[in-house]
Amino acid sequence: MKNNVRTGWQWSVAVLAIMLALAGCGSGGNNGGADNGAADKNAGNGGAAAETNGTKDAAGTEGGTGELTKVKVMLDWTPNTNHTGLYVARDKGFWRERGLDVEIVQPVEGTVEQLIASGDAEFGVSYQEQLTMARTQQVPVVSLAAVIQHNTSGFASPVDKNIKTPKDFEGKKYGGWGSPVEEAVIGSIMQSEGADVKKVKIVSTGATDFFTSVKRDIDFAWIYYAWTGVEAELRGEPINMVYLTDYSDKLDYYTPVLATSEKMIADKPDIVRAFVEGAAEGYNFAIDNPEEAADVLIAAVPDLNKELVKASQKWLAPKYRDDAARWGEQKLEVWTNYADWMTEHKLLEGEFDPQKAFTNDFLPQ
């Protein structure tokens, strides 16, 4: 993927996010991740829209009586349960009721942040780490909602590797993409236990899936439990998890988030509000009805592993809102803490104002 914003180690940050997304939606031979062609076909098909309810829509017309406003939301990766609320919002008609015709599309050349900033898509699925980096590079993007309230990623290993804490990383082999962020995160949580990251052998495994890698090449890898961890359960391959949030509050960042451009917020706030409110209704539906929400995602992207989608959705549903007062809520301290962590580890260049990086203003009360 061509990148005109980040270079050197900054590109590695973006690659790491892609690696985690890949681990979260394409692991294993029975992987549940649709190929791009199938995903594109299903992501852009418009879905089955519900009847409008006569409420005022974003275009300023009565629901069902005026032309819908067309917008795009760009995914970060192949459709998976991080995105279920978006498909529910589209296919249950929650956006249509608000005057929007939303097309869900796959990422193309360039990063999601670049593409929404340039207007190629009005909205996108991003990550706090990527959005933070983008803003330091003068890419004017803003997080609108936290899809998941707490970071569910961590370092996974088969139980027979006996890796239960960061101290156990010593003498083991980690497989990733060779990004400085990976070593910084591993070193940060190891330091909390007085362990030495220099005693970890870090190798690049590229796109090799987790289950193949830990049997053949490595001892542990970075995954999202909601997909790869749940898949391990279904495969009967128990794993140990070392969650980042168990060892550092600063690593409890928002991943993923829904984002838009500063221009959209300034010029079309009604459209932004309609999008966020529809997405919120979609994710709240998924929280309350995980099985039915899983069916919506499966119908939209039939190439996905149905058993994995249902199990993942059940695991993830309470994590969307978790301890927040409402779905999507973001806290300034979370944005500040992670930026401070990146600065401490010399991973952040340029000025970053956390107060301008996110907003809760468009979330329904």
TrEMBL record:
InterPro entries: NMT1/THI5, SsuA/THI5. Residues 43-64 are annotated as: Disordered. SUPFAM superfamilies: Periplasmic binding protein-like II (SSF53850). PROSITE patterns: PROKAR_LIPOPROTEIN (PS51257). Keywords: Signal. It holds the Pfam family NMT1. One of its GO terms (biological process) is thiamine biosynthetic process. It comes from the Bacteria. Residues 43-53 have a biased composition (Low complexity). Residues 80-293 form the SsuA/THI5-like domain. Residues 1-23 form the signal peptide. PANTHER family: 4-AMINO-5-HYDROXYMETHYL-2-METHYLPYRIMIDINE PHOSPHATE SYNTHASE THI11-RELATED, THIAMINE BIOSYNTHESIS PROTEIN HI_0357-RELATED. This is ABC transporter substrate-binding protein. It comes from Paenibacillus darwinianus.
